[in-house]
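call fold target=aldehyde dehydrogenase (NAD(+))
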Amino acid sequence: MFQLFINNQWEDAASGKTFPTINPATGEVICQVAEADVADVDKAVKAARDAFRWGSPWRRMDASHRGLLINRLADAIERDSAYLAELETLDNGKPYAISYTVDLPTVVKCFRYYAGWADKWEGKTIPIDGDYFCYTRHEPIGVCGQIIPWNFPLLMQAWKIAPALATGNTVVMKVAEQTPLTALYVASLIKEVGFPEGVVNILQGMGPSAGAALARHMDVDKLAFTGSTEVGHLIQQASGSSNLKKVTLELGGKSPNIILSDANMEDAVEQAHFGLFFNQGQCCCAGSRTFVQADIYDEFVERSVERARRRVVGNPFDLKTEQGPQVDQEQFNKILGYISSGKREGAKLMCGGGVAADRGYFIQPTVFGDVQDNMTIAREEIFGPVMQIMKFKTLEEVVTRANDTKYGLAAAVFTKDIDKASYVSNGLHNVSSDGRDLPFENLHPCWRHFCFAELTRLLVETCTWWQFCRLWCTVFVAYMSSFP
């Protein structure tokens, strides 16, 4: 049984409760894990607060040594990457080939990137009237509560923990109940490489209990959350009703892929397929609304259906597998419900739409054509392998329709014309956009979506606060003779 990681110790839940974690490829129980509740959150927050107190080993540690510890953690993860990839695939269902060649190297790079930031913080001096010396400095914000999702468990853990540690904070992380195993293994590595007691605490538990307790805790200074927009609202409300803790949110998406008539057809089909079906469609930045210009619409749909039918679905440990199971029964049922909704509301089911295996949570790669903007599948985040293709005529039309959503996470434009790419990109109300098929690569280099927000100095700054210092000075003038 996997326990809770609090104050560098493994502990049972205070209530003694456990819950099973399930292999989504088979539906079988992998193991039991301790289920954190309010009392466990309180204990973990106290450990984090004690570790953050002035004079503690963590607060006395040089910034460069913090960076060294983070790099040591990256080394340990890299050393154990094959095992971690197996554990990620077992618990999450994503293909092992992706876990090992995409997720793990990215996790290691993330920790190394933030390790480099640890001793790079600089303040400013501010000229003011009078005999004063005024300066600013970055200070760690304190105890950082973090709630991560199940679609990229290791990667989301790295994105949250690394910047918080680099800036000298302490952490209480609530991992997704569907996928706790890799986060807990990383906890053992955190202890192994020498992080002081209480600096990182890892809890697995349910959102309405452990997650809510962390969000409303009066001794948590910042809360970072990645997950659904609906829960994001609850996180904000919990902050407002408790201690007004700082909140950073990375929420859902319904991102447009816009294919113009001059696009390279082969590239557009393959990239749109990847943008939707990657990670079983369980990506908040998935290009889940595919807009195709009218004069190439039929060919694009035909080729997209052919590509979806070739997609290899099956055992995630088979290196030929492109698509594994959905993460759990709830997500499996939710996606099938959206497929039924699409058929019921008049979208044309071009391929897929059913269950792909006798056991486990496998869904066939699904493509809908003739999708209208007011259909449920065009407006709500499906988070599954369901492609929706819509027809448009003019650039003005597609920009208006692409912006007609409550989401705004990512977008892509496929064209050879830089003027058209710039026009569409400038008109889209999204965090990032990507121009594809242009004569020069990466003129709008943002298909990496939200990682441009989370993997930059901008995120690191959210883990600190500015301290403004004003010192009254007694001025001493030193005279130095000139050198001959």
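return ok
The two ends are 77 Å apart (CA to CA). The longest strand covers residues 132-140.
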